[in-house]
Design a protein that fits this description.
Shape: globular
Number of helices: 25
Mean pLDDT: 88
Structural class: mainly alpha
Radius of gyration: 23 Å
Strand order of the largest sheet: 1-2
Number of strands: 2
Largest sheet: 2 strands, antiparallel
Strand content: under 5%
Amino acid sequence: MTTFNNRDTEMTKKSAWKFLLPSLIGFLLFLVPIKVNGEITIGVGVLASSLLQAFEQQIPFFILCLLGFTMVATLLTVLFKPAFIVNQPFLKSVFMAGPFGIITRIFGFIVGYMAYYGVGPSFISSGATGGVVLFDLAPVLLTWFLFAGILLPLLVEFGLMEFVGALLKKVMRPLFTLPGRASIDTMASWMGAAPVGVLVTMKQYDQGYYSKREAAVIATTFSIASVSFSLVVAQVIGIGHLFVPFYLTITVASIVAAIIMPRIPPLSRKEDTYFEASMPTIDESIPEGISPLKWGWQQAIDKANTSKGWKKHVQDGVETVLDIWFGLIPLVMSLGALALIIAEFTPIFNFISAPIVPLLELMRIPEATDAAPTMLVGFADMFLPAVIGSGLESELTKFVVGALSLTQLIYMSEIGVLILRSNIPVSFLELLIIFLQRTIITLPIIVLIAHFIVF
């Protein structure tokens, strides 16, 4: 107690500002919703959208060049192992790929080339498959991660996570089995975009702030769709006038799922051990007799005082951006296109969704046969259920389809690929199981609320 009091009294204004100023800027950029041109977004979103609008015509070609460069650099590294790459840990980690990485980077470039020039088989170059990824999805990821990657240290490196963690520990731990700092990941998703929340989780896990179980739970359970994206889904599917009850329904269902999911396999079976390349760097215990507010403040000051220099933060941020651009974009291009091809040009989702039809009929959901495929097609891409569901006639069914697609969370065209490429220990099969579990948990809740709201 004496040590803590001495440290408290010796705290200087300079130390306080080391925590407050960067954290406040990070809070404003990532967590404060603002309305721009009638849409709700965050500061990072404004920067990304501005860049996207300014170079809307050029970005798809830049992505194609990026795909080509990544493919060539990967093949040269694997085949010839040039010293200027293999002797640089960062470059080696990016371009020294295994068989799967090589295949996805080659296929990703092929998809990008066909989609950009409109050549090759239509099921690849179509505006509903390769075109969607190249012209719609990849540019958003490219611009969002550019600013999120560089500015992320403001949110996580100067004490804000420690401060919030101490305040919310008594809520997050008993309810969701997670440390209080996990609330920041959720807010980053909620106010900005789900990939930003996953990016925060990835960085925190790599640095030893989350255990394997905690990181897996946060990435698959708390990377919720943003308010702005939810509004777009509601408008596309045709229930924009019901947005307030629509989003409240999503919130209720997501909270219930967040309470249940960490307590059942496969998430409950994840080890509470830490990433092998890091050491545990967090102790949630609060000394007896000290308030969470006071302890959180002290922890935040300590974190800010020991934070790396700005040069190192900028370097880390640039490496994060390049790692995502060279590693994630080709993966999204290949696997995202493949998922959309399966959804758009094969009857697979219609076939595997057949057993859902009797369940939907039991729940008194109109157009059950047409609605059933939308319940599973979201595993390919979160936006597909809204596009397909927009052709439905029943407002109640549209409400259920739209809300369910936003509570399932796991979709391979973006979140799934990002998680698989990270160090977070979650496999493709586990992602599929988690997707189905979330569907089973949230569907009855959504249907029950929908029957009260729509009728």
